[in-house]
Amino acid sequence: MTDQQRGPAGAIHDIGYRHYDGPRLGPAYIRRALFLETLRGAFGLGRSARSKVMPLLLLAVMVLPALVVTVVTSYIGFDTLPLGYTEYVVTLQVVVTVFLGAQSPVVMSRDLRFRVAPLYFSRPLSRSQYVQAKYAGMVAALVVLMGLPLTLLLAGALLSKLPLDEQLPDYLRAMAGVLVFAFVLAGIGLVIAALTPRRGVGVAAVVGVLLVLSGIQATVRALAGELGNDTFTGYAGLLSPYPLVDGVTAGVFGADSSFGEGPPGALGALVFTAVAVLLVVVCYVVLLARYRKALS
Amino acid sequence: MSGLAFNGTVASLTRRSLLGRKRTLVLALLPLALLALCIFARVLGGIDSGIERELSGRLAPDLLAAFGIAILMPLLGLIAGTGAIGPEIDEGSIVYLLAKPLNRYSIIVTKLVVAVGVVVGFGVLPVAVAGVVLTGEVGAVTVAFTVGALAAGVAYAAVFLLLAVASRNAVVLGLIYALIWESLVGGLVPGAQALSIQQWSLAVVERLLGDDASRLGVDAAVGLGTGLTLLVVVTVAATVYAGRRLQTLRLNDET
Questions:
Q1: Which among A208, A218, A220 has CB closest to B75?
Q2: Domain, as residue range, for B159
Q3: Does B72 reside within a domain?
Q4: What's the average model confidence in pLDDT over B59-71?
């Protein structure tokens, strides 16, 4: 080979790479894709078989009582469901807690642990859009988790020839409650999970916080009941997310409180709603702040 | 079998991974919540004589059983038990420990001892203090619940340590056991309570309280013999099996 053939040093060669000149789908498309990926990822879809076991198992545990109630209702012929729509989620709150604990690190921590979050932000996707997509994905996953058994319950009730006009109002109340539950719980879970890149720690932290809060709430409620002060008993529900949202469902949508003592009067309903909204807003702001700074 | 001994280096490494500066603060929140609750109850007791009466009756044991044994112990056992070895296996740094000429059983025993230490420091001692705060004395209730909490804590730590060696989903599996099996299923299906660390340790509490147990509303689902035997068997078997699993640990099957 002569010097001539090798060409001058440092020349830029055109080796045939081409530009992309087609339409670009933009941030809205990325956000939608991220939302869908989060929702699917929360149930392990599009991930390995091992990652599917836990969320689908928990979904099954969540749905199972609804099926049992349906079968029992149609065989024995009750005229009401033995387990009502609005108390369903509260009765199975442990399952929801474990799901939230197991899956919010999946949604948040993996991007941090494998350091791929910066790659998202090198696309035309702002940090607030990233947080919105993740939050919306987790909310949707929780709505599926809690809404699916309720819908099955309604279907079962109708199949057992219970009248629709008696069932539907309670079902709608419960579904509205599910939406509030999803926003409040997803906020708490994601904030805690976003603080740690370690999966195990995130799981224990999310469940620990919810469990300790509900323990404190139950004890304070018992003490208040002992004191014989109904107002105090009602407001004790503010201490833990489940009675908080239950109070909102009872106070605003007019369901029966599943914790016995709901928020006291219109003022109580207002306070419960305000606290729930505030909680969601604070969680969102904390998430934004977490992702605004450098990630580690 | 000289390797079964406690290993100081492994212990200090484990202690450091369990109790970093920030992590200690987070862990301390659990017992602090318990103590705050007890002080709150005590203050209310000062205001209202009904609560004062209840505190020397059922309220104190109820609180200690519900918050101390049913919530604090499984959570701490989970954090300490899985935290002692789980992250190391997850990150793959366990290889450096396994490559040393150490008996694998000795690694497990050491990590268990450290985990139990954490459980005692952040769980059992606070339960003892809570008992004193609630009842105002170092009486039968305090002693019984402290011993019960210790028994539960040791068993939980051993079982969850095994889970961490055996599965990558250790934390979730542990939670499913502690919450769904012991609380939810145990509440609906009485038979499930026979297989519950919580009930076994309550059996210990019940016996230590003696004749007062029924007056104080402490009622375990199993007898003392069964409970104690199962506690010991489960703790020892979990530790031995964890050692075995560590001998044949498969690395790098991250999927």
A1: A208
A2: 2-247
A3: yes
A4: 85
Residue B254 resides in a domain:
no
CA A100-A106-A110 angle, 5° bins: 150
SS (H, E, C) A5-44: HHCCCCCCCCCCCCCCCCCCCHHHHHHHHHHHHHHHHHCC
CB B73 within 8 A of CB B153: yes
Q: Which residues of A touch B86 (CB under 8 A)?
A: 200
pLDDT for residue A152? 93
Q: Is A10 left (phi over 0), alpha (psi -120 to 50) or beta?
A: left
- Contact of B101 with B115, CB cutoff 8 Å: no
Contacts of A204 (CB under 8 A, 6+ apart): A101, B75, B78, B79, B82, B83, B171, B175
> Does residue B176 lie within any of the structural domains?
yes
Q: How many domains does chain B have?
A: 1
Closest chain A residue by Cα to residue B89: A200
Cα–Cα distance, B128 to A236 (Å, whole number): 26
Query: Which range among A98-107, A195-204, A207-216, B51-60 shows the weakest confidence by mean pLDDT?
Result: B51-60
CB atoms within 10 A of CB A277: 14
pLDDT digits (tens, 9 = 90+) for A2-55: 555 555 667 777 788 888 888 888 888 989 999 999 999 999 998 888 888 889
What pLDDT is stored for residue A219 in this prediction? 83
Q: What is the pLDDT of residue B248?
A: 87
In this predicted model, what pLDDT tens digit does every residue of B9-31 receive, in sequence order?
Answer: 889 988 888 887 777 777 888 88
Beta-carbon separation of A219 and B26 below 8 A:
no
Query: Do A207 and B41 lie within an 8 Å CB cutoff?
Result: no
Q: Which of A50, A89, A114, A219 to mutate to test the interface with B (most CBs of B within 10 A)?
A: A219
Q: What is the DSSP string of B109-166?
A: HHHHHHHHHHHIIIIIHHHHHHHHHHHSSS-HHHHHHHHHHHHHHHHHHHHHHHHHHH
* Mutation site for A-interface testing, chosen from B171, B177, B180 by largest number of A Cβ within 10 Å: B171
Q: Please list every residue in chain B whose beta carbon sits closer than 8 Å to the beta carbon of residue A207.
A: 75, 175, 179
Cβ-contact A206, A219 below 8 angstroms: no
Could you tell me what percent of chain A has a pLDDT over 70? 94
Name the residue ranges covered by the structural domains of chain A: 25-292
CB contact under 8 A, B180 and A61: yes
Token representation of residue A286: 């904390």
Residue B112's Cα: distance from chain center in Å?
Answer: 12
Contact between A139 and A96 (Cβ < 8 Å): no
Confidence label for A296 from pLDDT (cuts 50, 70 and 90):
low
Please indicate whether residue A296 or residue A16 has the higher confidence score (pLDDT): A16
Instruction: Classify residue B252: in a domain, yes or no.
Output: no
Give the amino acid at A272: F
Distance CA B177, CA B185 (A): 10
CB nearest A54 (choices: B29, B83, B169):
B169
List, for residues A284-293, the tens digit of each pLDDT value. 999 999 888 7
ipTM of the complex: 0.81
pLDDT of residue A24: 85
